[in-house]
Amino acid sequence: MKKIQATILKGTRDFLPQEMMRRNVVIEIIRKTFEKFGYSPIETPIICPAETILGKYGEEGDRLTYSFKDRGGRLIALPYDLTVPFARFVAANYQDLPFPFKRYQIQRVWRAEKPQRGRLREFYQCDIDIIGSKSLICEAEIVKMIAIVFEKLEIPNIMIKVNSRRLMNAILRFYGVNQSEITSIIRIIDKITKIGEEAVVSELQKMGINNAQKIIETLTPDDTNKNTLKKLERYDISELEEFLSYCADLEIPEKNLQIDPTLARGLDYYTGLTFEVVSEDADFGSICAGGRYDNLCGLFSDKDFSGVGVAFGFERIMLLLEKLKLFRSNNAPSQALVTIFDENSIKDALQTYSKLIEAGIAAEIYFESKKLSKQFKFADKKQIPFVLIRGPEEREKGEITIKRMQSGKQKTISLNQLVSYLSNYYETQ
To answer: What is the pTM of this model?
Structure first.
């Protein structure tokens, strides 16, 4: 039989155990922070009716959405993000939800784009949303959580950029842009960090926007948030002023917060404040983004609920942690390996193993009575810190030998002290 090549699609990845353990540590930090703020977990289906997904993100989003027909001839799509599936979820379940409803969701999404550093076809997003309230306190809370997540991850030098889609619309209308053109113009402005100001101006001019340079100059932020707002005071900036006052009350450092009127966020469903988090240490774009959407749930229900949320770009966060060498030493899922000294030791080894598991010590047993050197190599490869040995001499004396794999040192203690010994070590980690 012809062997199948053990390949995967570009833009997807395998994760070895050590990398998965790193990812799980980061996800757990993010998850605990979400729950600390009172957000509840949900999950939504991976395969969706295409009408649920398509037509919600704009032309580029539709182009990058994986869609296909199933065996029944139904048009199916994979989630492009977690926000639109969440809006559908709320429309279907709102009678069973407390409002305002605060949810978090950590799942995979898919985008049919050309893979490159920081851009994959299959990746995780970590989303939070508040739905059922138009209060700008929601936006301020989300920014507070963003700051705390990156503080917990020990990622320095982040900047949370904020803009108002309403303000941007007002500025574009002031410069004579027709309402029907605003969405297309915003999509072009959204490219400014990717292709630069000059290229954006050129694209706008090709669309017939003669005062494109003046628009970009107006949108360019000043040196401080105060000066940026002063520059825009001829427009309605009350939304941003109220938001900043709540951020101050929540003690969010202003040095990590920038009002950036060029921030567009190209997705069609945003209606209010938008967010983007960047790091000066990253060379692959934003690491968290989102905003306010007022009309999204109305696409799925006669009832409408205003919502706001952000998605943490988990894969990019992992890249940044790796670049900054912020990963702590990899820990094995097990603290101790119970060896089998010889065939006569199997019963004793199983009993020792059982005691550790019952005591809540993360442990495992080597399944065969191979040479101890082979069992040590196994523990070393899995980075298990302790190896437990009970040969005939230790069994006769009621003792057990503990080998620290990192130092190679060995210590023999009473078997009765084993759980206490490992527990004290485990608690200090």
So the answer is: 0.86
